[in-house]
Amino acid sequence: MKIPIDYYLWLSTILFSIGVLGVLYRRNAIIIFMCIELMLNAVNLLLVAFSTILNDGAGQVFVFFIMAVAAAEVAVGLAILVMMYRNTKTIDINILNRLKW
Amino acid sequence: MKVIVVLIPLLPLLGFLAISLIGKKMIAEAASFIASSTVFLSFSGSAFLLYKLITVPVAERSFSVDLFNWISTAGFSASMSFLVDPLSIIFMLIITGVGYLIHVYSGGYMHGDPGFNRFMSYLNLFIFFMLLLVMGANYLVMFVGWEGVGLCSYLLIGFWFKNQEYNSAANKAFIMNRIGDLGMLLGIILIAIQFGSIQYTEVFAKAGAGVAASFTLITVLLFVGAMGKSAQIPLYTWLPDAMAGPTPVSALIHAATMVTAGIYMVCRNNILYAFSPETLLVIKIVGISTALWAALIATAQHDIKKVLAYSTVSQLGLMFLSLGLGAFSSGIFHVMTHAFFKALLFLGAGSVIHALSGEQDIRNMGGLKKHLPLTFLTMAAAVLAISGIPPFSGFFSKDEILAAAFADNRILWPIAVVTSLLTVFYMFRMMYVAFYGKERASEELMAKIHESPNNMIIPLVILAILSTVGGLICIPDSLGGHHMMAEFLYPVFAGSSTIIKHHHLNHTTDYEIMGVVFVMTVILIWMARNYYVTKYNIPKDDYEIKGFKRLVLRKFYVDELYQFIIVKPLYSISEMFHDVIERMGIDRLINEMGNSVILGSRGARHLQNGGIGYYIFAMVIGIILLVAIGFLR
Fold first, then answer.
1. Is the CB of B618 inside 8 Å of chain A's CB atoms?
2. What is the total count of domains within chain A?
3. Domain that includes residue B625, residue range
4. Which of A94, A98, A99 sits opposite B613 (nearest CB)?
5. pTM for the full predicted model
6. Which ipTM did the prediction report?
7. Calpha distance B474→B485 (Å, rounded)
8. Interior CA angle at A63 toward A60 and A68, to 5°?
9. CA-CA distance, B161 to B598, in Å (whole number)?
10. Is residue B619 assigned to a domain?
11. Domain CATH code at residue A68
């Protein structure tokens, strides 16, 4: 039995919204990172779902690219976080507010 | 021939350049020599041209020299060209001849002045522009000269620029001339529009052929220019103040040459004026009223140069009266004789001032006759000439104007006669008070008194001879003479003389007029002598003069009136504009624009508060907005 497209849509919308809210509300940099990944993966899920339904492989190729880029981004981002922790002993993003006006 | 015509104005210009470029390094004698000799060469050239003109037939007595095309656009062109004809040659001779004598005189008068070279270079520049004015073959060249002489007049009135009063006098002269020049410029523009050309020959040919043009407007506008330059009511107040300049300047610019530019201009355009009787009427009225008004003021002045300045204004008024009557050649004749005797009077006054180390008040002179005999004799010749005593030059020229006035209108004549009697009175008053009676100058001045050096006396003597015999070239028919000048000038005025009707007086009337005026003149001289010499009444101090005399002494408060009705309102309007439009309008607008940017940025920079969460929030809102816009479109 085939799962209807609606389900995928709802699921990825929910995942994306969770990601957005997480980015907006949380102060922990790692959790914000994870929320970004969540948003990316919501999109990935949608791309794969449409790719299957429409019988078009292009969507799945995109997903691979996105996953690769996301991995690279995480590597860089985590490195930044490590350095930030070493300097400030915290990963609360609201501490980093010196760059203003 | 062409080379000579070009060299005449060019030589003074070269003299100016040479003196002013080398400047103070040049020794004074060299500057004086260069300045005088260039003008003398120009005079010789003009004399040569006069000889050439006389020897050719009457019909060929006018030729123009085109140098180059100055402006050429579609439908309009102006060339740099000179016109030599009887009218311009007379003016050229007056300018360079009297100019040369005054250059020589200046060598003595300005001796030892720190700005001597500058003075000489300005005089040369003036001669150049004045020659340009009278030699130009189109209105543009004339206008360049017209403006140039105004500039030189300004520079020379304010020659001693450390004195603030002199600077104001220079400014006044320049600004009043500007008012006139605006009218002049508008007139020239109108001519260019209506005739399609500014070349004299073309304009006059078209006017003579009956082209429909607004002659009255054109001629009135041109006359406004003449009013400014020739100091007629209401623009005359600058000329008496212009006496702030050194005395040779007063003689050259403000008596003999520049102020007669207006006369030249009207005569040059006689054909246009002939088509507009209204303008001629205006000129007549302005001329006679200026003559009377200024003569009246001159009777109460105590500054020797002020007397002469008002006398100049008055004589210029008489010349304009003669132009208004259509007697153009009489006007020119009076320009010439006036150039002789008025230059002489100024130079004589300069000699007196020089002898008394700068004293100008006739009340502080007195008894100078035996100390300055040559100055006295030469000035006496000039006074007799201006008073119209035969056979001095002024008699003939003034008689022509009076006869023209009598023939034209029985009201004009008595006014003109009163004017000329006033002239006699103030001139003899000046002579008697300054040269007769007791010596009133302080003893230290009298100890230093000396007759002027030769280079000042010789020009005086030459001018005295000219003032005495200069009128003989134009003896009226009634005295068995021959109108040489009128005949020489006839080709220039041929076009207008057919339009303007001239009444001719028979000889008996002419004798009667001469006789009446002469008898009254002699009586007046006797009265002046009785009052100032026999009874020895010296004019009182200013504060003791009361009533009408005080009114005249203070020049009828015209300066104050102008101050009150024009200068003050102008200042208050400017101040209003300054405070309201400039300060509160434009300045405020600019400042507020600057301030609003500063204030806006001061508020907007708080958007960058350094909080990452806040940035992300802004980013999300932005994305949502973009998506929403994408949907709504």
1. no
2. 1
3. 560-632
4. A94
5. 0.80
6. 0.77
7. 6
8. 135
9. 48
10. yes
11. 1.10.287.3510
